[in-house]
Amino acid sequence: MTTSIHLPPHRLGEAARRLRDDVRSFLDGELAAGTFVPRCDAWMSVADPAFSRRLGARGWIGMTLPSAYGGHDRSPLERFVVTEELLAAGAPVAAHWIADRQMAPSILRHGSPAQRERYLPAIARGECSFAIGMSEPDAGSDLASVRTRARQVDGGWEITGTKVWTTGAHFAHAIVVLARTDGSPADRHAGLSQFIVDLPAPGVEIRPIRTIDGEHHVNEVIFEAAVVAEDSLLGERGAGWRQVTAELAHERSGPERYMSTVPLLRAWAEHVRQQGDASAERELGGLTARAWTLRQMSLSVAAALAEGRPPEIAAALVKDLGSRFEADVVETVRRLAGIEPRKNGPGLDGLLAEAILHSPAFTLRGGSNEILRSVVARGLGVR
Amino acid sequence: MTTSIHLPPHRLGEAARRLRDDVRSFLDGELAAGTFVPRCDAWMSVADPAFSRRLGARGWIGMTLPSAYGGHDRSPLERFVVTEELLAAGAPVAAHWIADRQMAPSILRHGSPAQRERYLPAIARGECSFAIGMSEPDAGSDLASVRTRARQVDGGWEITGTKVWTTGAHFAHAIVVLARTDGSPADRHAGLSQFIVDLPAPGVEIRPIRTIDGEHHVNEVIFEAAVVAEDSLLGERGAGWRQVTAELAHERSGPERYMSTVPLLRAWAEHVRQQGDASAERELGGLTARAWTLRQMSLSVAAALAEGRPPEIAAALVKDLGSRFEADVVETVRRLAGIEPRKNGPGLDGLLAEAILHSPAFTLRGGSNEILRSVVARGLGVR
Amino acid sequence: MNDDPRAEIRATVTAIVDRRGEDRTGRAWKELSEGGFHLIGVPEEAGGSGGGLGELSVVVDVAAFHAVPVPVAETAFLAGWLLARAGLSVPAGMTVASLDEAIGHRQDGVLRLSGRLRVPWARHAGHVVTMVRCAEENLVAVIPGDAGVDLVTAENLAGEPRDLLVLDGVAAAASAAAPPGLDAAALLRRGALARSVQLAAAARAVLVSARRHVTEREQFGRPLARFQAVQQHLAALAAQVTAMQVSAQAAVAAVEHGDADAAVAVAAAKATTSAGARQVAAIGHQLHGALGYSSEHHLGAVTTRLWAWREEFGNESHWHDHLAAALHDRAWWPLLTGDAG
Amino acid sequence: MNDDPRAEIRATVTAIVDRRGEDRTGRAWKELSEGGFHLIGVPEEAGGSGGGLGELSVVVDVAAFHAVPVPVAETAFLAGWLLARAGLSVPAGMTVASLDEAIGHRQDGVLRLSGRLRVPWARHAGHVVTMVRCAEENLVAVIPGDAGVDLVTAENLAGEPRDLLVLDGVAAAASAAAPPGLDAAALLRRGALARSVQLAAAARAVLVSARRHVTEREQFGRPLARFQAVQQHLAALAAQVTAMQVSAQAAVAAVEHGDADAAVAVAAAKATTSAGARQVAAIGHQLHGALGYSSEHHLGAVTTRLWAWREEFGNESHWHDHLAAALHDRAWWPLLTGDAG
């Protein structure tokens, strides 16, 4: 770790190609049936439980879970193929995305046998949505600044505190909460633990937070002395921060970290093909080269995961570049397409409006670029 | 100073237009006579003493100095017009640039009557080149890290220390040196003083530093117990840092802070006009809009100077934007012109090669962009 | 903008628009129009409130800075200007301008108008002014708002009305010949100047808000303003905002003084302010964190305007092409300095 | 590049090129050619040293990382490849390739060549290989270096030889028909792949040097690496360098395996590495301060190469246009994944 980030390229094989063809056929069928229209950022904001169940039925959720827990014993690289096809299509996958990406690996690794039995098969069927209660009011990027407390009481834990910017809590079947079980806020990383809380639950109030696009994707989740069972503790008491950090690497490592605006880019590519504007063509070529490279990097990260190498630094680096790419796609299209963005517009104007309004989130979610760059700098040994 | 940087636009009048016409006629004549070819960054690197003397004879050096000292009692705005015309033409002005820009105002303000008599008329005639000994080895951007010492001795001062990156010392008639007269390095800003040392001088060695373009523009200047007269102290003993800071605002405030690559841009504009490439045309339009705005900002800074308002913050801000513009000109031309840069090439290729090789200097000289941004942040009251 | 009448206008308009509470927009519009601020810069003989472009720019600047959705740019900058240029009088009530030309034909001495016209704020307007192409004539005409035209509502990214009027032989309430030089390009340029002022003002609002946020908020146990990366972002933001302000103000001054190269100034200003909007909004959101992404925070009201306005009346690509075309006939440096060369 | 033979090649070549002292270049070239590294990746039956594209890339990578001016890309990547593809043998000594096609005509059974050919390193070469257009035939031919041709010397920004050969009916020393698919576009692509590897390696050298500099140097009384702005710059640099490395390595792998979409990979890699060069050089110089701007510092040797190589064999604009043209026939996402769609 002294010269550069080691990230050898990976080549997908013939099996991946067949799997990709299967996913494309499925998506073509869904598009033909009109079950969805391609949307930007759909993995964050477009939830369709029926669509998720259909994916689950095909074995495309919980792919890397053991079959004993309803999974499919497939490699992170096979999961990568399915994931990138869904993202490229702008498919409505938000109902299962967080559960599949973060919570399934976390519960598999840290969960009790009972928790595994309870949640993993349901996640793999596409029937269990998860939310993650992490950020707190006034904490900004400082995720360790946790004021929510969990106090051991008779027969369980009593949780009190407020989480904000919680994606999908309004339709989630469960929420994972990071809370302080021991010590004081000055201890920062020490003394934090994770809990799984089924929703809805008494003492847990979910209020919508509308974002600048006027939509309701995120929530404020208020725990007022909500009592949960003893066995809702996830993993080890006091090890919450370590568990969360491992989840974050998963959160940052997927192709969604550069692909949120690919549906807009694909629509614009068609537009350019019809227009024949040399200036637009060249910039389309430029975005294509960047996307090609980001895909190769993302694939390398998936290969590292598959080999059990922790991709924390590489994932942070890819997300840093990827979120800039997502924003540059929006900027390039708006600058060259010669159309005014329009909310709910029928074509490129609607996709563009949605992408512009979501663009601040590209670099805020999953760690700001400053935070990501600190992770990379630390990885280079300079801190 | 709480909301934004106050920088009202300024409009030049009819007198300025006539002055501009005069300068253009002169430059057209020089170009026709073949006395120079337009060069990028010529104000740093192309010195022609005869050219400077011809400018001096026309009253275009030391313009704002009082006539009592050989100056012309003109306003900073008239000086601005002459300056920008010389820069736009890529004229060989390095022989008098530093003397005219920084040392003349500094000597007028801080110099003794004898120093004024000695240097100002010569500067205004274009016959006196100055160098500024500021940076020291290993100091980087930390200009206050001064190890050069001046010790009071019989009949004068004895200076010992080394200055680096000293532009034009090899042809300068005098160098201004920042040296510690009192206290220790831990005192930083306190205890520093400025001295004017005529060149060549015993005990002062000037060694070339070749830069990555293979050229010799800057020097290492070594003072080995060089003894200078009592009255070579410039201004107040111990007030050197304050004097230098005021000079820096002058150094940063001129149009050369965005215009170094304008000769390349003008040549490329002709190239584009002949090519008719739509993609290049659009980017030329973009650079033109940025240049127009930077010129308006630069003009506002000159107007602030003319009204006696210190333009420190605004100058830092314009230089930050300006140096990025200079580099973006180079990048745009290279990306779109479809030619390979070539050192000493006869046309655009030669201008491009020179500009590329100088580009690191755009953001290093006169304060790195990080330093400039710190100045701006402090101006906004956040530090 | 430091002379006295302008400072007074700034103070008065600020007091009107800088308020919270119920029906903020309606109350602001009522007071602005009662005070005649919606027709400032339009000559009194044309039914306006008098004053120059400088005063008008102050009103538009303040309204944009506070992100209050009132159509001062549309009434005074565009509609009033069109009417005054054509020698027509401004009708009472809210009069806004069409971005597109109508097709006219005369029938029994009545001018009848057809076409699909983009008309911001049409839904609220008492009258709409439009340029008209009628046989070989160029006209300016007034359409009454209650003339039974079809209106399709739409909004820009900031939720401001961007409506479509569908005319099919509607009778004009008034009309006059357009003077030489008043054409679609002139209208576009006029709108571009208005949006330049608005973009610069919205950018300034982002800077003010960001500065306040980073000095008031803490993270990792110290004020955000103490982080070097935050300071660097803030300084870059200030630089961009200042560039936008200077370019818009210089363009206003050039048009106000009738400079020969005013068209270049407007093109450069709209290009600069449109291109700068991205970085200003991005840094603003980055510095505010998730908080600024909530619809309850003021930031979104200004950033969505930055995103909407940069496309209106030509985005930077449009004006870059325009400047490049101007360079076909003029050398680069004289174009920049506004001289013949 | 972790398997053993490649690691061994890396170590050996590093030992050869990573030296200081007199006539560094001459000694490095002598040892490289004695070891056969100047013809690695060229089949032994064609007079090369054998090995695959992966091994060749290691040699080119190491030479570029150390900025040692030896023409391994020109001899092995281009000249050896051209000769082997045409079934010709590599002559002894240094053989380099022309970037341009010569015009051939046959006279008394002798192939005579004319034209102005750009030939990097021609001044040092024993032979030059060129593609030839002769009536309806496409040929590959060898020109002896001592054939009395006119040579105009020139250098790129890094001072590497970029000469011009002026041929006027020079007799070819050997020639053969070019196989199908071996044309000017294929040669350009091959050169682009070589430069991609070199650009990525030079970028890595900037990162290594910058990392060392900021950990060793102090400013304002503390190590540069402690400044948040410095850390952020370094991380951005690392991201850019990693992107360049991954793209170059992926393109090498695609060509090595004969992938159907190898042409897309090379276009994307040369575009990525050429476009990344600017930021890498800029951050590198910014972090090194004035010190790195001196010709005595190692940094300039790599940044001038970044600036030169990004333009050679098509800069990013060229390859962006190329990718855009490929999108005329294929949909965007299948092009990216290398599938038929």
Would you write up a description of this structure?
The complex is a heterotetramer, with two copies of chain A (383 residues) and two copies of chain C (341 residues). Chain A contains 13 helices and eight strands. Helices cover 49% and strands 15% of the residues of chain A. The mean pLDDT of chain A is 92. With 383 residues, chain A is of the alpha+beta class. In chain A, strands 1-4-5-8 form a four-stranded mixed beta sheet, with helices on one face. In chain A, strands 2-3-7-6 form a four-stranded antiparallel beta sheet, with no helix packed on it. Chain C contains ten helices and ten strands. In chain C, strands 1, 2, 3, 4, 5, 6, 7 and 8 form an eight-stranded mixed beta sheet that branches. In chain C, α1 (4-17) packs parallel to α3. Chain C starts with a helix and ends with a helix. The relative contact order of chain C is 0.10. The model of chain C has no long low-confidence stretch (mean pLDDT 94). Chains in contact: A-B, A-C, A-D, B-C, B-D, C-D. At the B-C interface, α1, α9, α10, α11 and α13 of B face α5, α6, α7, α9 and α10 of C.
Draw up the topology in text.
The complex is a heterotetramer, with two copies of chain A (383 residues) and two copies of chain C (341 residues).
Chain A: H1 14-33, H2 42-45, H3 49-57, H4 76-89, H5 97-110, H6 113-124, E1 130-133, E2 149-153, E3 156-167, E4 174-180, E5 192-198, E6 204-210, E7 216-229, E8 233-234, H7 240-253, H8 256-259, H9 262-275, H10 278-306, H11 312-337, H12 348-364, H13 369-379
Parallel strand pairs in A: 1-4
Antiparallel strand pairs in A: 2-3, 3-7, 4-5, 5-8, 6-7
Helix pairs in contact in A: 1-4, 5-6, 5-7, 7-11, 9-11, 9-12, 10-11, 11-12, 11-13
Chain C: H1 4-17, H2 24-34, H3 53-65, H4 72-85, E1 95-97, E2 102-107, E3 110-120, E4 127-134, E5 137-144, E6 150-152, E7 162-171, E8 174-177, H5 184-216, E9 218-219, E10 222-223, H6 228-256, H7 262-288, H8 299-309, H9 316-326, H10 332-337
Parallel strand pairs in C: 1-4, 2-4
Antiparallel strand pairs in C: 2-3, 3-7, 4-5, 5-8, 6-7, 9-10
Helix pairs in contact in C: 1-3, 3-4, 3-5, 4-5, 5-6, 5-7, 5-8, 6-7, 7-8, 7-9
